[in-house]
């Protein structure tokens, strides 16, 4: 059960090697979380992630899970929920893709969309149904500021996140009044291993900052969380920039 | 049960279905961590038994008026039995001062019904809007704890619907009865109870009020007030100003009182004609959503100063009505809304006598952080009850209402928990919404006894609540 501050006792991370997912797990283990399930494709990285959390004192297990294999979601995730209540599901998987290459490789581009959107729709619905059955819990969906307005630089990734974001908002409304809380998290560019070496974008953030914002959002039972918070204002303006001008912006 | 099967999800996918009309998101008085449950309001024993025998996968718990701040009376995904339909006073022995009533009768109703006969509830907690069942389940106490003990001490019998669907009569001294007092509704559903009452001659209180400049002086004053068997006052309560800085830290208004005998009423006082009159007033309801955090540091600091300055330096023998003395805040309906949309936590703990230093340290930490506690109430507690999870133990009890939005509050309270447990004290579970499960064993040494009794009585955990799940009770 979550406590008054929204800190969960059990956590399921979909995308168990996600840096934001692990930073959030670390932060929540420091509060109340004792049971962590890391769902992801079996790999040494997933095992290492589980070990790193285990070292913090949590009961950690990995769950084989492939976002692209939507047919298996119900069975795989159903098992986790059958073991006991899950207070919070963090939908953290996603691939960034390689925009330049993917534009000329439609199959790779479709895989980005399938992972980030189709896989998330399937996993999100499975988890929402299970949370609804237990009458409580939070589904935290990692969207992205890239989904707020498509950019030339990353529109394949951005469009998949835009779809996910819209899906999560609608799901949140569907879950309203059922005791299940759906929270959409929209981080700006996150400094991580994946972006190491790239030029830093404005209003960049870190996995730890996102984790902190998630913890705060849980307490406030927020529906949308921007990281950093100032992005909300920035994007409110960016959303209305005319296309010809937006195209020329160095973003 | 018919409706439960409609609500329990059989497939794992989200279905567009109309939820059962009885399904509601429920939270405690603190309005934190709401969860969905099917609310069932049984109208008689048969319906209650039926509900217990068909509890669904996630069990059930009884709920009264929902005044507990935490998650003791909510049950995510399961059933919540709304006991307010059990509202009949069954029998009153006006000569002996004994009343038998159903569990959903409120203390307010008992006062209305029994004061005309010259009887008062034996324990008067901070609100009269709680049910008898809730008062037993939380084993509530009032400002008269050193004299009268907690609520369970005045119960001479209770009818308990246990998880097997049987209605048992539990008598004081039996393990089942003891576990039920302070048992947070986890031993069974209390259906009715027989209580011993307190004789009073009038419905007025003779009240002594004084300002006390700091915490040490307050503890001294409280200690001589009810010391050594010769109790000058039956009730004493102190409201502390924890926002005052420097030398003023812990300044308080100490209120002590006793029921007025008829002969002690002033001549020509209107109460001479109607000595047992009980007509509490009510103020208008605040709007459903109070924006922001209305009770921030500034407001609470102002209210505390006002409370302190408005109190007489020392006044004795002033006459007050029962509601004004016991439940000054009950006149505001839905007063839990004033803490804002995020809700609040109530942190009530006790540290044993001899551990005054721990209390001083805790008070200093709260004062240093400048937390807007509204209110902060200090009591003395006497000998505890026999319940394994009953809160009171001989010591100093401080209750704080804290708005949730204070940064770092969760971590601070965790640290205070350690301080409390280290001093041999404990946190009140009936109000709790946040304690760390690992901290519990140190606070409640008889926890295993309670778990064993519950496992024997209710092996399938039919009776369960969010609190029980969170803390593994």
Structure characterization notes:
The complex is a heterodimer of chains A (251) and B (473). Chain A is built from nine helices and seven strands. The model of chain A has no long low-confidence stretch (mean pLDDT 94). Chain A has a seven-stranded parallel β-sheet, sandwiched between helices. Chain A has a single domain, classed as NAD(P)-binding Rossmann-like Domain (Rossmann fold). Chain B has three domains: 80 residues, no CATH class; 112 residues, Uridine Diphospho-n-acetylenolpyruvylglucosamine Reductase, domain 3 (2-Layer Sandwich), CATH 3.30.465.10; 213 residues, 3-Layer(aba) Sandwich (Vanillyl-alcohol Oxidase, Chain A, domain 3), CATH 3.40.462.10. Chain B contains 14 helices and 19 strands. Chains A and B meet through helix 3 and helix 5 of A and strand 2 and helix 14 of B.
CATH homologous superfamily grouping of chain A: NAD(P)-binding Rossmann-like Domain
Distance between the termini of chain A: 42 Å
DSSP strand count of chain A: 7
If classified by CATH, what would the architecture of the largest domain in chain B be? 3-Layer(aba) Sandwich
Largest interface: A-B, 33 and 40 residues
What share of residues of chain A is helical?
A: 40-55%
Low-confidence stretches of chain B are 1-18
* Overall form of chain A: globular
From the alpha carbons, calculate the radius of gyration of chain A and give it in angstroms. 17 Å
Number of helices of chain A: 9
* Element-level helix/strand string of chain A: EHEHEHEHHEHEHEHH
Q: Class by helix and strand content of chain B?
A: alpha+beta
- Alpha-carbon distance between the termini of chain B? 26 Å
Tell me the number of strands of chain B: 19
Low-pLDDT residue spans of chain A: none
Please outline the major beta sheet of chain A: 7 strands, parallel
CATH class of the largest domain in chain B, anyone?
Answer: Alpha Beta
Radius of gyration of chain B: 22 Å
């Amino acid at each position: 059960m979550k406590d008054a501050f929204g800190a969960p006792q059990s956590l399921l991370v979909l995308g168990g090697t996600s840096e934001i997912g692990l930073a959030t797990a670390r932060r929540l283990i420091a509060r109340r979380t004792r049971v962590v399930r890391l769902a992801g494709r079996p790999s040494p990285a997933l095992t290492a992630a589980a070990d790193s959390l285990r070292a913090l004192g949590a009961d950690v297990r990995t769950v084989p899970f492939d976002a692209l294999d939507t047919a298996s979601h119900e069975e795989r995730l159903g098992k986790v929920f059958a073991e006991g209540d899950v207070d919070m599901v963090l939908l953290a998987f996603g691939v960034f893709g390689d925009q330049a290459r993917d534009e000329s490789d439609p199959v790779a581009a479709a895989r980005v969309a399938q992972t980030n959107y189709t896989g998330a729709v399937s996993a999100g619905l499975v988890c929402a149904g299970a949370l609804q059955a237990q009458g409580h819990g939070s589904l935290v969906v990692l969207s992205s500021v890239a989904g707020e307005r498509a950019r030339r630089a990353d529109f394949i990734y951005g469009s998949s996140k835009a779809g996910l974001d819209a899906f999560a908002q609608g799901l949140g409304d569907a879950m309203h009044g059922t005791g299940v809380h759906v929270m959409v998290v929209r981080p700006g560019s996150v400094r991580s291993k994946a972006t190491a070496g790239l030029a830093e974008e404005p209003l960049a953030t870190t996995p730890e900052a996102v984790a902190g914002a998630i913890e705060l959002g849980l307490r406030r039972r927020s529906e949308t969380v921007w990281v950093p918070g100032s992005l909300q204002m920035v994007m409110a303006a960016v959303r209305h920039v005319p296309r010809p001008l937006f195209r020329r912006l160095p973003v | 049960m018919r409706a439960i099967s409609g609500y329990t999800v059989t497939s794992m996918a989200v279905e567009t279905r109309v939820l059962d009309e009885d399904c509601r998101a429920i939270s405690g008085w603190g309005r934190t961590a709401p969860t969905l449950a099917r609310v069932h309001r049984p109208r008689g024993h048969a319906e209650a038994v039926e509900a217990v025998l068909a509890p669904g996968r996630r069990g059930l718990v009884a709920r009264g008026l929902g005044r507990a701040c935490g998650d003791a009376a909510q049950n995510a995904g399961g059933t919540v039995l709304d006991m307010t339909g059990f509202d009949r006073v069954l029998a009153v022995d006006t000569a002996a001062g004994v009343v038998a009533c159903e569990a959903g009768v409120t203390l307010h109703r008992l006062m209305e019904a029994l004061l005309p006969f010259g009887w008062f509830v034996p324990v008067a907690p901070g609100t009269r809007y709680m049910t008898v069942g809730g008062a037993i389940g939380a084993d509530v106490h009032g400002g008269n704890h050193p004299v009268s003990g907690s609520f369970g001490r005045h119960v001479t019998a209770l009818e308990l619907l246990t998880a097997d669907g049987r209605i048992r009569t539990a008598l004081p001294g039996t393990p089942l009865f003891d576990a039920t007092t302070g048992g947070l509704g986890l031993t069974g559903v209390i259906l009715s109870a027989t209580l011993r009452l307190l004789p009073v001659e009038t419905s007025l209180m003779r009240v002594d009020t004084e300002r006390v400049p700091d915490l040490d002086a307050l503890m001294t004053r409280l200690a001589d007030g009810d010391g050594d068997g010769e109790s000058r006052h039956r009730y004493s309560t102190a409201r502390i100003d924890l926002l005052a800085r420097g030398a003023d830290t812990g300044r308080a208004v100490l209120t002590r009182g006793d029921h007025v005998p008829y002969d002690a009423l002033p001549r020509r006082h209107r109460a001479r004609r109607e000595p047992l009159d009980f007509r509490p007033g009510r103020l208008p309801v605040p709007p459903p959503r109070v924006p922001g955090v209305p009770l921030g540091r500034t407001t609470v600091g102002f209210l505390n100063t006002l409370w302190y300055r408005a109190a007489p330096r020392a006044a004795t023998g002033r006459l007050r009505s029962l509601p004004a003395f016991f439940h000054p805040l009950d006149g505001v309906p839905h007063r839990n809304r004033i803490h804002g949309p995020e809700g609040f936590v109530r942190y009530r703990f006790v540290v044993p006598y001899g551990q005054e230093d721990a209390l001083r340290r805790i008070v200093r930490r709260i004062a240093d952080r400048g937390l807007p506690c509204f209110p902060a109430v200090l009591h003395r507690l006497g000998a505890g009850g026999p319940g394994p999870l009953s809160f009171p133990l001989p010591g100093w009890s401080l209750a704080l209402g804290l708005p949730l939005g204070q940064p770092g509050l969760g971590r601070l309270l965790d640290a205070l928990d350690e301080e409390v447990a280290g001093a041999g004290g404990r946190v009140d579970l009936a109000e709790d919404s946040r304690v760390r499960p690992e901290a519990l064993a140190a606070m409640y040494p008889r926890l295993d006894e309670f778990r064993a009794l519950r496992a024997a009585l209710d092996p399938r955990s039919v009776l369960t609540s969010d609190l029980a799940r969170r803390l593994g009770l």
